[in-house]
Amino acid sequence: PRRVVSGLQPTGTLHIGNYFGAVRRCVRLQDSGDDLMLFIADLHSLTTHQDPDSLHANTLELTAYLLASGVDPERSIMFVQSSVARHAELCWLLACLATNARLAHLPQYKEKSAKMKEVPIGLLLYPVLQAADVLVYRGTHVPVGIDQLQHLQVAAQLVRTFHHRYGRVFPTPQAILSGDGSERLRSLRDPTKKMSKSDSDPKSRILLSDPDSVIELKVRKAVTDFTPQVTFDPESRPGVSNLVMLHCLAEDKLPEEAVEEAEGLTTAQYKRVVASALCSAIRPVRERAARLLERPAVLRDVLRLGAARARVRADEVYEDVATRLGLSATV
Ligand code: ATP
Ligand code: MG
């Protein structure tokens, strides 16, 4: 089977972009028989400052939301990134093959570093750690959003460089794009931007923890345009089209079907349809997560078991890699 590797940062409650664009896709891959390794990317989250208590709380919260979304810890391996030291160890080996020029040119780095006075090296290394996350399990497939495609290209290049110098050890990881538009849901306040956890405006995103009334409010306030009809045209009408997309993802339908359903409705009326579809899709996840969060010991057990299973896989690959490089630590 394919080995799918994916990670989510514990930087705050998941929004529906993370859910439809990442979590639910992983769950569907798991359910269709892929070997899924899903980790909580706490090392990645340290590239921007995290309050230690919040980081800890966010890690447990994310665990609850992942389980609530259908991740099955028996079939899949779910764990915290920092509990498998091989991620960071392989990252160092790969960092020695990466170049500053290549990494500094990546759009996400440019975007995030532009806002900082002092740019941590970890932010530059982020894609190298991502490559390590996948390669340390010989991952074959990575479900990505459009925002991550270039990072996967960095991984592919590192694999080539590694093979050239030391021989074949890693498969080149392939991107899995969903093709349903879920890779880039847009901000509700500025549809030219993607929906993001780090956006300063909380109304720009719908959280998985939002109660129905808040979902309704945020959809009602979503920025659209001055055309009252509902059409699907992401280029010229990004705001309305984003609502159509959300409607489709919530009810597993195609844009044509959603637009047909919206015939005769104004965008204001259509927003009520979208809000109600989102409420129905998200409510069960929110309720399951709330119940799981009452049992933190169970969540910790899941993570502990997942880490133990992940370590076995990572050790095997890392030892192979270290031997090729001539490192003697394992002999
Ligand atoms: P941040 O702003 O802190 O980077 P984020 O919202 O981008 O937060 P991440 O933790 O970086 O969230 O990403 C988690 C996963 O969600 C990734 O697989 C990413 O591709 C996906 N993702 C993030 N934003 C969106 C979005 N707007 N639409 C679809 N998928 C998204
Ligand atoms: Mg992001």
CATH superfamily of the largest domain: HUPs
Structural class: mainly alpha
The count of domains is: 2
Instruction: Strand order, main sheet: write it out.
Output: 1-2-3
What characteristic shape results from the CA principal axes? Answer: globular
> Care to count the β-strands?
5
Largest sheet: 3 strands, parallel
**What small molecules accompany the polymer chains?**
adenosine-5'-triphosphate, magnesium ion
CATH class of the largest domain: Alpha Beta
- Stretches where pLDDT is under 50 for at least 5 consecutive residues are none
Q: How big a fraction of the residues is strand?
A: 5-15%
Radius of gyration: 21 Å
CATH architecture of the largest domain: 3-Layer(aba) Sandwich
- Give the distance, in angstroms, between the N- and C-terminal Cα atoms: 31 Å
- Binned, the helix content reads 40-55%
Write down the secondary-structure element order. Answer: EHEHHEHHHHEHEHHHHH
The CATH topology of the largest domain is Rossmann fold
